[in-house]
Amino acid sequence: MTAPTNDQLANLLSRCALADQRAFAALYEASSAKLFAVAVRITRRRDWAEEVLQESFVKIWHHAGNYDADKSAPMTWMTAIVRNRALDWLRRPREVQTSEDVEAFMASVPDEGPGPEELATLAVQARELWQCMEQLGPDQQRSITLAFFHGLSHGELAKKLDKPLGTVKTWVRRGLERLKQCLEGMKAK
Amino acid sequence: MKYENPTIRDRLAAEYVLGTMTWRARRRLEAQLKTSPALRAAVSQWEALLSPMASAAAPLTPPRRVWQKIQQRIHGDAKARARTGWWYSLGFWRTATGFALAAVVALGLVVTIPDRLPTAEKTMMVVVMDDMQTKSPAMTVSWEPGGSSSKMLRLRVIGHAEMAPDTAWELWMLPGENRPPVSLGLITTHELQTLQVPAQLVPTIDDAWGLGMTVEPAGGSPSGSPTDQMLYMGQCVKT
After folding, report:
1. Domain ranges, residue B162
2. Out of A87-96, B97-106, B212-221, which region has the weakest mean confidence (pLDDT)?
């Protein structure tokens, strides 16, 4: 199966905005496996990821009319919806959260971001991003990948990396600043 | 406001997109997103910068049931919309003295016209919440009773409600018998929305006396109890 183009996805979204059920089914067919992988990666539980994906597609259906092809690529827009749902799901206030729950959650966090095989599948755009990631210090890089791929909060990062919260926040902040400079530099070339 | 400083704004947008913020900080930022085009632009920019990284995940086909549930939700919403529009046009609400009575009357009609409403035979929990100041219906909430795993509330905000800056709307389960309200989570002013019932409330919500809504500081009540009187409130009716 070849990956759908941005134009194809944008077209499906615009038809969803007109309540075209078939377009919605095609959109789901074309994007759900990518988006489910994003949700699983962040929530680390299949059942949660299913809930997140379900809510995200309901939102995509209802808000397809808000999608603006001039402002973002369709997958960027949909990925942001899924990531935000997944992060909200992880961070939602829970009345009963024992220290054992927290331990179990932390234990399920892998030590690193994606491996070389997964990185090899990246699109060109992502390779640029990755080149910039590699220019970061190792601590900055690790904090940013753990946060992005596995949805760790500042506090969870500090715990995972066994460093003070302030240190981790600085790594993240400086890392993001450098990343942006590097990417903007590449675009300017 | 700290969001007016471009450096800080950009940093907060980056952290929001990266995902390191707490739930509360996320809610605060989202409240600002509604009113600040500059913040929206910063968030979009970071989404575009970081989103290619999200593609570094092997695709994973979700189970079939996810699509089925999405279909149910969407069709369910369409029916709820048709039904609410119809109730509303009956003009019962403004003259009815008691909302519970009005709900029963309206739902009685629903049952007698099953052809128009294919889901009418399904038992539903319905709450018509009145604005306590104007005494007119302001919001309806419905859900399917029973079931033990997850539960979704369907919400419909009637009219064009507006939320003051730096505030949040919080929905409460009112268990009755003088037991204190329990938070169901924050809601928006969107006309149609759904809310996942927190897992620990799934077993008890069908037996609640009613639901209420309060206006809380951004991010929700800091104490876990309402900080103000119920603005909207209504009693649960099983139909």
Report:
1. 72-238
2. B97-106
